[in-house]
Amino acid sequence: MSYPFTDDHDMIRDAARGFLQAWYEGGKGPERIYQSGTAYDAAAWKSFAQELGMAGIAIDEDYGGAGLGQLGRIVVMEELGASLCAMPFLTTCGIVTDIIQTAGEPIAKNRFLKKIASGEIKAAYCDGHEARDKKVTHVAHAAEADLIVLSRRVEDGIDYFAIDKRAQGLVITPEKTLDPTRGFASVDWSQVTDNDLQTIGYGSEDRHEKLITQSFIALAAESIGGAQKCLDMTLEYAAQRVQFGRPIASFQAVKHRCADMFILIEAARSATYAAAIAPPVEKSEAALIAKAYATDAFFKVAGDAIQMHGGIGFTWEYPLHFFFKRARANRSMFGRSSRDYDRLADSIFGAHA
Amino acid sequence: MTLRDEFSAWMSANFCGEFEPLRGRATPGDEDAFPGLRLKWERKMGEAGWIGVGWPAEVGGHGATLDELVGFNEEYAKHGGPGRAGHIGETLFAPTVIAYGTKAQQDKYLPGIKAGTEFWCQGYSEPGAGSDLSNIKTKARLEGDQWIVDGQKIWTSLAMDSDYVFTIARAEVGSVGRHGLVFLLIKLNQKGVEIRPIKQMSGTAEFNEVYFTEAVCHKEDIIGGVGDGWKIAMALLGFERGASTLGQQMTFANEFEHIVALAKKNGAAQDPHIRQRIAKAYAGLKIMRMTALRTLEAAQAGEVSKEGYISKIFWATWHRDLGELAMDVMGADAEVLEGGEYGKLQKLFLFSRSDTIYAGTNQIQRNIISERALGMPKEPRGGGTVVSGHG
User: How far, in Å, CA of B87 to CA of A182, rounded?
Assistant: First the structure.
């Protein structure tokens, strides 16, 4: 175990890694998902979320979860990032879990948290309060979700409600995306009647911002996992690929590039772990740093990995391109990093410097 | 009362009055500021027992925990404490003598460090032993009960203000590389030692050449035995990645705040590109802090952690970039010498070009990372044959 993790986290890490490596037979997963035509691996979810109990990692023990908080979730997200396993963990066990745990009324907690913890329901989050006409595009994991959680602007804040996927009038249209291993869809609830809106709770605008920003930490962790996998693949390749009579891993040009990849990854880990353990007043700022740094790092490392692999790196057959595409997708998932840094600058200078 | 609170209260009560000119001064590139007053400040710290707080209680320290050390360093910076003249002795040499020295050596050397009256410098590099550090040519021979030392050291930080140098020299005739070295403790104020400052592009001289011509030290003034020199020298560098980085980061944080304040004042804060760079610099500060905590926690648990290897190249590169950012924030003023002297940020900009070179260049750091953290093949060794670059 290493700071800031405990033995419990290590056990979770080992369990998640063991499962995902076996499941995807050493990296064949992304291609299998691509061939299936749908960015959701139902059998994996059943085993991972339900049987291994991973879905409840960050849910309080009162609701059947493991109560391992953000650090527990980070550990799982890193392993998911390394495998590109197509499961709606980020939204179900990240954003939606946090919304219900933080802003949910007791009745909503009772209704949903146990089912999420047991892996019975999968959920997506849709920032409806930004939508003009009750339609939002590019919602992660919406197509496979059992529950769509929506935010809605009310007089002095944001309220949250849930729509069952079977609700009449709900239209979910899957999108074709560059990264074939994470599903996105548009969600249209303009024809859903108020009777089908299940209340979750209410939060101020400020708290909503904090909630969403906090979920950035999970995306940062996933990016670290993906980047680490790219570096591991590169090291393995460089050790066995022989040119000029020696493994290319012995050339300084290759060694130094790998060192730079390592520096980026470890720095991203520091940013992400710091965010996970940050006290509430520093949480949002730390989460912005983690997400901006880790998603940028993943993209750089994935690109470097392709370069270090030479010709095979840019083929379809070799799985690096899936990581490169995921890295690209993570860069825009919650907005680009330049926007995060701009928000940071606002808080450094005061918003109206 | 926590150690942090106690120290903060002491700083409020004591870092004032005559010491006021030292506020935020004497950072790298500014090491010639108020030399006399800085030494007085060290003695003040020492008298109050604030030197060596991280040492174990048996040798006169507070045995401070990691959290306490973090608090101590943060409070020092918050109060604007100056660059510490004694940090090489306190955070590099002392842990080494505590871990590997004899009781007699601890009794002889620790009190002066603790009192803030004796200062140390590190004599490792030589003209022909820079990145290839084990290519040491300085020789030490034992005559009677004295070591006689001949040779030249270079890039010795703060030698001009120091009382002692710890150094490595070749004690076995005919030995090469890491073998046959001895780790010596040499008093600088003697006729066999000459110190020549090296003026840097910042106009200041933190680094020096140190010449040994039949310089002497007592035969007991070695740590470990003959042949252990490399091991001790490397163990000492291990402490460099440890708690001493916390104090350095606080200096960085103060420099960063200085640049932010300037950007607000002169309008650079309106420039979207400058804002991005400021925000990234801030992220870098937070990353360095957490990397240090991860490394230190692992060290406390007796583990060697891989992330520690990124520390030097990360901070050096960050600090060099900060220097460039400082100049861009200053704009046209960056070129103007106020009162004919380099200002604080100009010194930072110029001095920081050395950060990515001393204590292991960025290129050597990448070798170390790739070989030790990533397990890639080692660089081939030249075997003593110098290949001419001119055909």
Answer: 51
